[in-house]
Specification:
heterodimer, A: 359 residues, two-stranded antiparallel ribbon, globular, B: 434 residues, 2 domains, two-stranded parallel sheet, 16 helices, 13% strand
């Protein structure tokens, strides 16, 4: 009824291949952007921004990165946590070397370091596939975290062995460090994530994205049709690691404030993989949904009893939250193995014919 | 569709709920958040500490009606020893008028150190955290009474030295291979030169915590005269078990204060007999204050301890000692400001001015529980002494006097480390002390 595209005629090829061909979708996106840019900063308090919105956006970016590799190119990786770490450590080192350079530039440049490292560890993907590739990316994970722990130069020989964010200003406003307000952090992260989402959605719809998907669907056929696996696979590794690296740098500088090696361990990689699988492989929107599910839901669950005026022992609540999240993951994967994005798509199709479904 | 609307409404409700500002508590409450961990791999250490911390405040509420007539409100927040959840806990509690944070995790402490001056809530990382925060001029908002890791190490070496001399000896250092375990290494190397011993390092990764046989094979080959351990969690009991297996003399094996808890040694039992560890808080329940805790809290079923026998454990008492320091600082702050309900900024003043003298300890019913602490603006650690305790197969027994640290060597190093931390942070607020 509300969600009907009758009468929306496409008169040009551009309109036909738009990202959001349906008017209602475009309105929906506009409303969401207004909420994200206006309502959230105005209404959200520190807790909401710092523990839900900022991590949600950062993990979304990491999930998009992994989705490019796993969802679009079909190469499973368990090294995304470590690639985030490469970005974080690169950004930290550059921020100490070039204190006067704009931090946002450094955050983006640190992605390139991550991309180079990612490409290097992506080389085995030219020979091996599937579970065997998982093992080599896991090796990358262990090797990189070992380096973060044992190469003192990477953390400037700090006694604590941790890297911390360095306070920096942009247009005379603190954007990182303790003096930066969560709203500033949130807006910076939001802008970076949105721009990179837009780039990713264009990448996967373009020539390079199509070649990734051809490799995913059938690599031999793709090769016969002229897609060069070397370029396709390595570019996927590079772009994916770039996204993870930027997410890692943002994690340290705009969210946590300091990070030890444990922030980039294999649990992190698994978490990002779960976001991708749960959200939907091969879907940018799914990355948002998966990240929201894994990042925001536990925080909401833990905050729920207090809101409803119940007093639940925080230890028990921790156990309940783990159980509820686990059960929900199983539930969603049974209901729709293709992830939340597919559920949303089905819902949209149902909405089109509602209230008079014809089948 | 109805279903969808319902779900949407529920989600919207929840979101606004969280977005709505947390309720501020009435003025006459001393609100103290307790970032505890009763779940996860380190729950064995986190639980007794959290119990001791909570029980002492409950006792003060029950016996004295709070501090200075104001009730204490303690709220626990589960961190699971994860830095991320620690930040979540911090953000969710700081708006409620939190007086001080005791994160019981070096990782969480590191994240809170820069936030403390901005939110004006001090941090008391008692016996953990960043050693350099002992320099009060550079870190006005962070405290680590009664002493730092570095000073502790010097005390341990002093003890070893007193048992036959360290000159020309071989010392093995086994440590958890993370920031916490690596932190004392620079000092160890300096002291090795000064005291004339050689060191061999044995890192144990977090994943190998419970599989240390290869490490101990190396120890057997190297035959060090002393072993010193910087461990936490499951690493401790495993190391002692392995040491006993290769017949390393356990009375030459000293752990730091996080490597000497009841929870670590009970599973090893008789086999761990002779193993030693440093400590700064009393063992057992023979102190009047502990008796009051049992009388007013544990016996009334208001404690979370599983059984009464666990009261008086090393880590229980350390959590309790942490609460004692916080309570004393609150008293000092109330006195200094003349207010009953204080703020985080007042609390900072309290943490710089309280005096836990011998007489005061006796008044509190903690005579001989720990060494006196005299707080000051300059010195946020107090450079307190530690004592050595030994496991007799069933219980920890104190076997040494209080051993003061080599503060004359350690202090300049701490100053250096503090200056380095501050150097690359523009806008960092320091203070000058009279």
């Amino acid at each position: 009824m509300f969600y009907r595209e009758t009468g929306q005629f496409k008169t040009s090829y551009e309109a036909d291949s738009a990202v959001f061909p349906i008017l209602q979708d475009r309105i929906g996106i506009m409303i969401m952007l207004v909420i994200a840019f206006v309502a959230v900063p105005l209404l959200g308090n520190d807790f909401f921004l710092n523990t839900m919105m900022i991590p949600f956006l950062i993990f979304t970016l990491a999930a998009i990165g992994l989705n490019i590799l796993t969802g679009y190119t079909g190469q499973i990786s368990l090294g995304s946590g470590a690639f985030m770490g490469v970005g974080a450590y690169a950004c930290y080192k550059m921020a100490t070397f070039f204190p006067e350079v704009n931090l946002i530039v450094l955050v983006l440049v640190s992605g390139f370091f991550s991309a180079i490292v990612g490409m290097f560890f992506g080389l085995p993907s030219l020979r091996i596939k599937g579970f065997y590739l998982v093992v080599t990316t896991l090796a990358a994970q262990f090797f990189l975290t070992w380096s973060f722990n044992h190469i003192g130069w990477l953390y400037n020989y700090n006694d604590s062995g941790a890297i911390d964010n360095l306070p920096r200003k942009l247009f005379n406003i603190w954007i990182s460090g303790p003096n930066a307000s969560p709203v500033t952090n949130y807006l910076v992260v939001l802008c970076i994530v949105l721009v990179m989402t837009w780039i990713a959605s264009n990448l996967v719809r373009g020539r390079i994205g199509r070649s990734w998907m051809m490799i995913r669907d059938m690599d031999i056929a793709a090769e016969l049709m002229g897609v060069r696996p070397l370029y396709a696979k390595l570019s996927a590794f590079a772009v994916s690691s770039f996204y993870c690296g930027v997410a890692g740098a943002m994690m340290v500088f705009f969210w946590l404030g300091s990070a030890e090696v444990e922030s980039f361990d294999e649990n992190q990689s698994f978490l990002i993989l779960f976001m991708v699988i749960l959200g939907g492989l091969g879907s940018i929107m799914g990355s948002y949904m998966g990240a929201a599910f894994i990042v925001i839901l536990p925080v909401l669950l833990r905050a729920a009893p207090e809101f409803f005026g119940l007093s639940v022992n925080p230890t028990n609540m921790e156990h309940y939250s783990t159980m509820i999240i686990g059960a929900l993951i199983i539930f969603f994967l049974i209901v729709e193995p293709h992830g939340l994005a597919r559920l949303w798509q089905i819902a949209k199709e149902k909405l089109r014919t509602w209230p008079f479904p014809y089948s | 569709m109805k279903k969808l609307i319902k779900i949407g409404a529920a989600v919207a409700c929840l979101t606004t709920a969280v977005a709505a500002t947390a309720p501020a508590y009435a003025e006459d409450v001393l609100y103290i958040p307790s970032l505890s961990y009763r779940t996860g791999p380190f729950a064995g250490g986190g639980t007794p500490n959290a119990n001791g911390f909570a029980d002492y405040f409950n006792m003060l509420n029950e016996r004295d009606g709070g501090i200075g007539g104001v009730k204490i409100m303690l709220e626990e927040c589960e961190t699971g020893y994860s830095s991320k959840k620690g930040v979540e806990c911090y953000e969710s509690t700081k708006g409620k008028g939190a007086l001080v944070y005791n994160p019981l995790s070096t990782g969480i402490t590191l994240q809170l150190i820069p936030k403390a001056p901005v939110d004006k809530i001090p941090i008391l990382s008692m016996g953990y955290g960043l050693s350099a925060t002992a320099i009060g001029e550079k870190f006005p908002w962070t405290f680590n009474y009664p002493t730092t890791y570095w000073n502790q190490l010097s005390s341990i070496l002093k003890y070893a030295d007193s048992k036959g001399g360290l000159k020309g000896k071989k010392v093995g250092f086994i440590y958890l291979d993370v920031g916490y375990g690596k932190e004392p290494i620079p000092l160890l190397e300096i002291l090795a030169k000064k005291m004339g011993f050689t060191i061999t390092k044995y890192p144990v990764g977090v994943k190998e915590m419970q599989a240390q046989s290869s490490t101990w094979l190396k120890v057997r080959k190297d035959r060090p005269d002393w072993m010193i351990m910087w461990g936490w969690g499951a690493m401790n009991s495993t190391a002692v078990k392995e040491a006993a297996k290769i017949r390393f003399p356990l009375d030459r094996f000293i752990g730091n204060w996080w490597s000497g808890a009841h929870a670590d040694m009970r599973p090893v039992g008789e086999a761990a007999k002779g193993y030693m560890a440093a400590n700064f808080s009393g063992i057992g329940t023979s102190f009047p204050a502990l008796q009051d805790v049992i009388k007013y809290v544990v016996d009334k079923g208001k404690s979370q301890v599983k059984s009464k026998d666990l009261v008086g454990d090393v880590l229980y008492n350390r959590g309790l000692f942490n609460a004692v320091v916080v309570a004393e600082a609150i008293r000092a702050a109330q006195k200094a400001t003349g207010k009953k309900a204080i703020t985080g900024a007042d609390m900072r003043v309290g943490l710089e001015t309280f005096k836990l003298t011998k007489e005061r300890l006796k008044e509190l019913g903690l005579e001989g529980f720990t060494a006196p602490i005299i707080a000051s603006c300059k010195d946020h650690e107090g450079a307190g002494p530690v004592f050595i305790q030994q496991w007799d197969g069933k219980d920890w027994k104190r076997i040494s006097d209080l051993i003061p640290p080599m503060n004359d060597i350690v202090r300049p190093l701490l100053e250096e480390a503090a200056a380095k931390y501050v150097a690359d942070k523009p806008g960092w607020k320091t203070q000058t002390c009279k």
